[in-house]
Amino acid sequence: MVDAGPFPPVATVEWLRSHLGACAIVDCRFRLEDPAAGRRLYDEGHIPGAVSADMDRDLSGPKGPHGGRHPLPDPAVLAAAFGRWGIGPDPTVIVYDDRMFAARCWWLLRYLGHDRVAALDGGLAAWLALPGGWSLPKSRPGPAPFSRPASVPAWRRTWMGCAVERHPARYWATAAPPNATGGARSPSTASRAGSLAR
Questions:
Q1: How far, in Å, CA of 101 to CA of 193, rounded?
Q2: Which of 69, 74, 150, 175 would be 169's cystine partner, CB 3.0–4.6 Å?
């Protein structure tokens, strides 16, 4: 894993391969233009033992007059979803995708107090580059009690506060997001797919 503090934010595919069965894995693939694509891709193949997380259904709350197209889910509902995926209070969680949505799951787990979570460096492409990386496992983790704090610590709440302060019009849905009209991303926002390390 890449060392960056108390618990590393990224894990290498070599680390994951040597720890299969000892951690929870979440497949976060999603397409804004085709919301059902993530589940189809998951059914076609995924990392052994991974569960599928849907951006619209699992990692976002219902749309309202404010909050944008993917508002934060209710913490209790989110915690129940984590529990269904077999994420208890102790295991390491590895999240991955082929674009950028694993970062959302990583952030939400941290937001609810589960700090043992890392994104797969290089995403699914890095895993598929391993010999025998593709798999359709027959079993998945069983449910586990996910424990969340009674209240979100102040330092975690500031993460959302920073997002609102930096882009208030976008957060409150009074301005369209940059890709609403198919515009290109600026060079300053470009990142390597599936990676939080670069």
A1: 10
A2: 175
The residue count of the chain comes to: 198
SS3 annotation, 6-26: CCCCEECHHHHHHCCCCEEEE
Rounded CA-CA distance 35/1 in Å is 31
d(CA 108, CA 105): 5
Choose among 102, 87, 117, 116: nearest CA to 54. Answer: 102
Q: What percentage of the chain has pLDDT greater than the value 70?
A: 63
| CA–CA gap between residue 8 and residue 39 (Å, rounded) | 28
DSSP letter for each residue of 71-130: PPPPHHHHHHHHHHTT--SS-EEEEE-SSSTHHHHHHHHHHTT---EEEETTHHHHHHTS
Cβ atoms of residues 96 and 120 within 8 Å:
yes
The H-or-E segment that residue 133 falls in is: none
Q: Is 181 helix (H, G, I), strand (E, B) or coil?
A: helix
Rounded to two decimals, the pTM is 0.71
What letter represents residue 176's amino acid?
A
Q: Residues near 114 by Cβ (< 8 Å), separated by ≥ 6?
A: 82, 87, 89, 93, 146
Residue 28: per-residue pLDDT: 97
Q: pLDDT, tens digit, for every residue of 10-27?
A: 999 999 999 988 899 999
Instruction: Return the residue matching tokens 């990386």.
Output: 133
| CATH code of domain 10-178+185-189 | 3.40.250.10
